[in-house]
From TrEMBL:
<comment type="similarity">
    <text>Belongs to the TrpB family.</text>
</comment>
<feature type="domain" description="Tryptophan synthase beta chain-like PALP">
    <location>
        <begin position="71"/>
        <end position="393"/>
    </location>
</feature>
<feature type="region of interest" description="Disordered">
    <location>
        <begin position="1"/>
        <end position="20"/>
    </location>
</feature>
<keyword id="KW-0456">Lyase</keyword>
<keyword id="KW-0057">Aromatic amino acid biosynthesis</keyword>
<dbReference type="GO" id="GO:0004834">
    <property type="term" value="F:tryptophan synthase activity"/>
</dbReference>
<keyword id="KW-0028">Amino-acid biosynthesis</keyword>
<dbReference type="InterPro" id="IPR006654">
    <property type="entry name" value="Trp_synth_beta"/>
</dbReference>
<dbReference type="InterPro" id="IPR036052">
    <property type="entry name" value="TrpB-like_PALP_sf"/>
</dbReference>
<protein>
    <recommendedName>
        <fullName>Tryptophan synthase beta chain</fullName>
        <ecNumber>4.2.1.20</ecNumber>
    </recommendedName>
</protein>
<comment type="function">
    <text>The beta subunit is responsible for the synthesis of L-tryptophan from indole and L-serine.</text>
</comment>
<feature type="modified residue" description="N6-(pyridoxal phosphate)lysine">
    <location>
        <position position="104"/>
    </location>
</feature>
<keyword id="KW-0663">Pyridoxal phosphate</keyword>
<dbReference type="InterPro" id="IPR023026">
    <property type="entry name" value="Trp_synth_beta/beta-like"/>
</dbReference>
<dbReference type="Pfam" id="PF00291">
    <property type="entry name" value="PALP"/>
</dbReference>
<comment type="pathway">
    <text>Amino-acid biosynthesis; L-tryptophan biosynthesis; L-tryptophan from chorismate: step 5/5.</text>
</comment>
<keyword id="KW-0822">Tryptophan biosynthesis</keyword>
Length: 415
């Protein structure tokens, strides 16, 4: 269904870092490969999003909601014990303290304002772990909008609490029974629904993926993370940049927000952690940048885990939020250029790192964020290095996963 590139400039610029070409390309990746019926809808959004986002009215409403509703700025916290352990100066960017428990609300707040300004009345969203579904249902309650969430039937079973939260917030949760009945299938179903309701419906995409302009919209909404880092670092260390930025990467939105204002600054090293699952050679992995090949998924050309004949392969990881067989086109390009160092972190390493942060700093991270923490052990720092690590979300939702796998955290799991 996704065969029509809506632009011809896809190879115009190989140097595109954080901002895509007018047709949505980051080097060879990106674009808008959508079915004919969505062509107008996607083009209307491409024409509308920048003027709206840049308008003073939007900026004022967005900033005020981020401050008073989400609770921003999120703190930048100096992690003393972890700094000593890893021989660097480690600062944690605390997205886990946001309303609803993760960075995802930064994006849903922005997109619902965009939807309202475009006169849309019905919101749809896909969700895997349910975090984006909850963040979307939350802003729909706030703005009194009708909300339908598509979620793989397997995930509906696995993520019971988030399903109940969405329903409590007034959303309809539609279990998707095609394919593996997980996130990738939920995305496909959301696109199908959008095809049936192109006029009144706004699709709130949850990560830096999907057809242009979504990767750019989501990156811009999350860029508040690095915007805050600039003045927070200036205040704390007297310079506005770190030596390292570390984040986990599923579709790539918290990572995009973390690096947004630093990507063209060569003084800043960027290290991303993707989910290795049982290991990149095990056949049970979600490490798309390591294992993917070029293809098209959910409207964009990017790296995809696929069979030789182009069938999407199921992703595997203990972390529901990183369980996606694609990757945002911006990151596919930055990784290809060598601007991002990408590490595959296996399930057991993430569980261990989650326990470590819990015991050493009193912060239970989301299992997704624990992948970023695990990257620390794989890097060699100088004592003067300033390292900023984004804790994308809190671990309340993952307590059972941590408990069921405490054998993976030898010295901490003995309780
Ligand atoms: C969804 C999620 C992620 C992965 O999504 P990105 O778009 O890659 O940021 C990471 N951490 C948490 C806590 C999440 O909920």
């Amino acid at each position: 269904m996704e065969n029509t590139p809506t632009g011809t400039q896809q190879h115009a610029a190989d140097t595109q870092t954080i901002t895509p070409t007018p047709t949505g390309f980051y080097g060879p990746f990106g674009g808008a490969y959508v079915p004919e019926i969505l062509y107008k809808c996607v083009h209307d959004l491409q024409d509308a999003y920048l003027p709206i986002i840049r308008s003073e009215e939007f900026q004022r409403e967005y900033a005020s909601l981020l401050r008073d509703y989400v609770g921003r700025p999120s703190p930048l916290y100096y992690a003393r014990r972890m700094s000593e352990k890893y021989g660097c100066k480690l600062y944690l960017k605390r997205e886990d303290l946001n309303h609803t428990g993760a960075h995802k609300i930064n994006n849903t707040i922005g997109q619902i304002l965009l939807a309202k300004k475009m006169g849309k009345t019905r919101i749809i969203a896909e969700t895997g772990a349910g975090q984006h579904g909850v963040a979307t249902a939350t802003v729909c309650a706030l703005m009194d909008m009708k909300c339908e969430v598509f979620m793989g039937a397997t995930d509906v079973e696995r993520q019971h609490t988030n399903v109940e939260r969405m329903k409590m917030l007034g959303a309809t949760v539609n279990p998707v029974r095609t394919g593996n009945m997980t996130l990738s299938d939920a995305c496909s179903q959301a696109i199908r629904d959008w095809c049936c309701h192109p006029d009144d419906t706004f699709y709130i995409v949850g990560s830096t993926m999907g057809p242009h302009p979504y990767p750019d919209i989501v990156a811009k909404m999350q860029s508040v993370i690095s915007e805050e880092l600039k003045w927070q670092l200036e205040e704390k260390i007297g310079r506005d940049y770190p030596d390292y930025l570390i984040a986990c990467v599923g579709g790539g939105s918290n990572a995009a927000g973390t690096i947004y204002h630093y990507v063209d600054d060569p003084r800043v090293k960027i290290v991303l952690a993707e989910a290795g699952g049982c290991g990149i050679k095990s056949g049970h992995t979600a490490a798309t940048i390591h294992c993917g090949t070029e293809g098209i998924i959910h409207g964009a050309r990017t790296l995809v885990m696929q069979t030789d004949d182009g069938q999407i392969e199921e992703a595997f990881t203990i972390s529901a939020g990183l369980d996606y067989p694609g990757i945002g086109p911006m990151h596919a390009n930055l990784a290809k250029q060598g601007r991002e160092q990408v590490l595959a972190i296996n399930d057991d390493e993430a569980i261990y790192a989650g326990y470590e942060l819990t015991r050493m700093e009193g912060i239970i991270p989301a299992i997704e964020s624990a992948h970023a923490v695990a990257a620390l052990a794989k890097l060699k720092f100088k004592p003067t290095d300033v390292v900023v690590l984004t804790v994308s979300g809190r671990g309340d939702k993952d307590v059972n996963t941590y408990l069921n796998n405490k054998h993976m955290a030898r010295e901490y799991g003995n309780f």
